[in-house]
Design a protein that fits this description.
Blueprint: E1 4-11, E2 21-28, E3 33-37, H1 44-52, E4 59-64, E5 67-68, E6 79-82, H2 94-104, H3 109-123, H4 138-150, E7 156-160, H5 168-185, E8 188-193, H6 196-202, E9 205-210, E10 213-218, H7 220-225, H8 230-235, E11 242-249, E12 252-255, E13 258-261, H9 264-272, E14 277-282, E15 287-289, E16 295-304, E17 309-315, E18 318-324, E19 335-340, E20 347-349
Parallel strand pairs: 3-8, 3-9, 6-7, 7-8
Antiparallel strand pairs: 1-2, 1-4, 4-5, 9-10, 11-12, 11-14, 12-13, 14-20, 15-19, 16-17, 16-19, 17-18
The structure holds adenosine-5'-diphosphate and magnesium ion (MG).
Adenosine-5'-diphosphate (ADP) binds near residues 40 and 46.
Amino acid sequence: MAAITYKNASCIYEGSDKLAVDNLNLDIADGEFVVLVGPSGSGKSTALRMLAGLEDIDEGAIEIGGKDMTGVPSKDRDIAMVFQNYALYPNKTVAENMGFALKLRGVSAEERRKKVENAAKILDLTEHLDRKPAKLSGGQRQRVAMGRAIVREPQVFCMDEPLSNLDAKLRVQTRTQIAALQRRLGTTTVYVTHDQVEAMTMGDRVAVLRFGKLQQFAAPNELYDRPANAFVAGFIGSPAMNLVTLPIAPGGVKIGESTLELDREQLSKLTDAGLSEVTFGIRPEQLELTDSGGVEVVVDLVEDLGSEAFVYTHAGDVELVARCNPRTAPKLADTARLRRHPEGAIHLFHPQTGERLN
Ligand SMILES: Nc1ncnc2c1ncn2[C@@H]1O[C@H](COP(=O)(O)OP(=O)(O)O)[C@@H](O)[C@H]1O
Ligand SMILES: [Mg+2]
């Protein structure tokens, strides 16, 4: 187990003119489960591979357990990786697959068997130890790949989209298992995914990347409640936060003919920034239907999920999504009224830089 520090770490691929990872700073505590999340191409895998010693660190440094890893080859970093394509040896049994790294390391057969059996117990693979991978389900194969990493008892787990090959239901189950397993083992883990739900449900803290740059590094609820910029606000949460650029009017912001009121503190932030418009954000569950007042909207789509419904609407060219009770949801093309839930949080972002203002 070990803490990990990225110190102004950058990576640029040969022949490219932009940094794949741009001046990354992260302090990861010993035993922490950190998720790197972001859209495709945002530098997640590169950042992980830099940690694992599979890509050069062109600027800055990465430390594991307080030791600078510059020049330390991958095999000497005491890291175990689990990738999306966790190719298992088809001709080896589950036990042989799991113990192979130990065999290469010269660990005795008896010791290997003990470690493999322990890991198999944790992963619920005991009865499959003598099978070949072809005889296993996708989820079981995924667990063998985890087992292969566990038996090495590394200081750090690096996982790059390890669940991408599983179907949706299995992915949900397996992510819970991996998170529980990590907590039990207490091994510092850096986990890469493009799936914000996976990030939010698994990580102690989540680092959001975009264009190789860190956007925010925080606990899931903080990312959700106080996104640092408009990108994080739109990326975390499903359906996404309503984010619209609105003109500032006396007392609030204008949506069509209506004014959505802001409190004094929010208004003064806007005045201080000298803005005439603002990127206004509110989550769908923090808008509600109302009979009077609020903003008049036209209903474009109702997504009924049984337990809840999402109403997609517009007012002029402003689109707003609201969550409501499916039993009382309006119908397509209805006119409805939306207002902010009394406790609903409003998020204000600079219309050009996207930085949070309130
Ligand atoms: N081997 C490579 N050679 C050149 N460019 C690469 C290579 N691998 C990744 N890149 C580029 O680096 C950036 C970050 O890629 P990557 O770390 O794979 O992103 P992610 O894992 O978030 O999808 C992207 O612009 C990608 O095109
Ligand atoms: Mg990747």
